[in-house]
Amino acid sequence: MYCYVVQPNGVVLEVQLENKTKGQDVLEKVCDILGIRTEMDYFGLKYQNGKTSGSELWLNLRNSVERQVQHMHPIRFRLRVKFWVPPHLVLQESTRHQMCNQVKEEVKEGRLLPTTRESRLRLAALLCQVEFNDPTWSPTRYAQWGKLLLGDGENDVCELSAMHKEFENMKRTAAEYWVLNEVSTLDQFGEEIYEVKSMKVGIGPNGVNVYQATGEQIMISYTSILSTSTLRSKFQLWFLSDDHAEETLEIKCDSNATASCLYRALTERHDFYSCDTVRGAVTSQYIRDLKGTIASIFNESTPLGKKYVFDIRRTCREVHDDARRALYSAAGESSRGAVETSETTPSGAEKLLTSVRELFTCRVCMDQEIDSVFFPCAHVVCCGQCSERLTSCPLCRTSITASHKLYLPQLPS
């Protein structure tokens, strides 16, 4: 059995599932392909749940995949950042790249927008640098981000072009870092919104935001939360107010599933951002189905019908420390291996030539040399034969209006 995993940039991965595969196995396979296994804990998999009117739920990584997506054919997940952290805590460029792709998606959908024009202009220029890495003047290049963040006026495009030239010598990886740094200061950064009747509840890195229909906003930090509970479709939160008085927030959700999602999201984020380690009360909490409940009467330790409520494994501090140790260890082994095999490995020039040949090879057929450029996105990824068969760019999914031959330098044989 296979499942499809959609990355934030729209590229789809195909992953083979074994019998009784758990969500953790799927995420590990995806992260291995993308090179983000070391910082895998920041990510999760989302799927459409037909029981809650098509809303998206986080796949529980500790439970069986088949039991969570019984009525989904084919099985399709979306790889998304579950726990957002400041960019200086992210150690791998590949991890920042995936986070930046999701930021671009949320900016396009209007969920993550700066409030001041200066911040919007800077963010638009950085996003242009990430995509084009070349400040050459072209109105079509600035049309998308300029219209989304500034406006479609001629002065807006000129301002964006001037700002983009300031980042002329910035590498794409550095631009991705500064994009994340720019949005990390926003109030909506890393906040997941749950709509419940007459209000919206946002759960983010700093705490819980309750947005009333009247415009009133209640902010509850993680340090002031005392306890939470859920009973059917009712969610309750006990916390300390600013004057240290105990208060209760009671939310009547649309369904039992929504209340459970709210309870899980708050508990996991509370532990991830504000605890030194994941509490045992969180990792050990589970429920049983009817068959498992009957079996547990005779054998309390039976795993039959057991479904874990939470799947968080590490806190923010633990993820960062473990990733740093893993990368340091890998760098040490790599340097030792390089010394031992220096006499048998190809020269640096040969490796460089091989890498350049791979870069100039069509990414579709992986046979012919690249010789076509797409418009309007200006991406160069495939040969002339493959470009005739494509209707949208394989990188950015933009519709192709024209494809022209490109003459690149000839590589030595």
Automatic annotation (TrEMBL):
<dbReference type="GO" id="GO:0070161">
    <property type="term" value="C:anchoring junction"/>
</dbReference>
<keyword id="KW-0965">Cell junction</keyword>
<dbReference type="GO" id="GO:0009887">
    <property type="term" value="P:animal organ morphogenesis"/>
</dbReference>
<feature type="domain" description="RING-type">
    <location>
        <begin position="362"/>
        <end position="397"/>
    </location>
</feature>
<dbReference type="GO" id="GO:0004842">
    <property type="term" value="F:ubiquitin-protein transferase activity"/>
</dbReference>
<dbReference type="InterPro" id="IPR019748">
    <property type="entry name" value="FERM_central"/>
</dbReference>
<keyword id="KW-0479">Metal-binding</keyword>
<dbReference type="InterPro" id="IPR011993">
    <property type="entry name" value="PH-like_dom_sf"/>
</dbReference>
<dbReference type="Pfam" id="PF09379">
    <property type="entry name" value="FERM_N"/>
</dbReference>
<feature type="domain" description="FERM">
    <location>
        <begin position="1"/>
        <end position="277"/>
    </location>
</feature>
<dbReference type="GO" id="GO:0030182">
    <property type="term" value="P:neuron differentiation"/>
</dbReference>
<dbReference type="InterPro" id="IPR014352">
    <property type="entry name" value="FERM/acyl-CoA-bd_prot_sf"/>
</dbReference>
<dbReference type="InterPro" id="IPR018979">
    <property type="entry name" value="FERM_N"/>
</dbReference>
<protein>
    <submittedName>
        <fullName>E3 ubiquitin-protein ligase MYLIP-A</fullName>
    </submittedName>
</protein>
<dbReference type="InterPro" id="IPR018980">
    <property type="entry name" value="FERM_PH-like_C"/>
</dbReference>
<dbReference type="GO" id="GO:0071944">
    <property type="term" value="C:cell periphery"/>
</dbReference>
<keyword id="KW-0863">Zinc-finger</keyword>
<dbReference type="InterPro" id="IPR019749">
    <property type="entry name" value="Band_41_domain"/>
</dbReference>
<dbReference type="InterPro" id="IPR035963">
    <property type="entry name" value="FERM_2"/>
</dbReference>
<dbReference type="Pfam" id="PF13920">
    <property type="entry name" value="zf-C3HC4_3"/>
</dbReference>
<dbReference type="InterPro" id="IPR029071">
    <property type="entry name" value="Ubiquitin-like_domsf"/>
</dbReference>
<dbReference type="GO" id="GO:0008270">
    <property type="term" value="F:zinc ion binding"/>
</dbReference>
<dbReference type="InterPro" id="IPR000299">
    <property type="entry name" value="FERM_domain"/>
</dbReference>
<dbReference type="InterPro" id="IPR001841">
    <property type="entry name" value="Znf_RING"/>
</dbReference>
<keyword id="KW-0862">Zinc</keyword>
<dbReference type="GO" id="GO:0006511">
    <property type="term" value="P:ubiquitin-dependent protein catabolic process"/>
</dbReference>
<dbReference type="Pfam" id="PF00373">
    <property type="entry name" value="FERM_M"/>
</dbReference>
<dbReference type="InterPro" id="IPR013083">
    <property type="entry name" value="Znf_RING/FYVE/PHD"/>
</dbReference>
<dbReference type="Pfam" id="PF09380">
    <property type="entry name" value="FERM_C"/>
</dbReference>
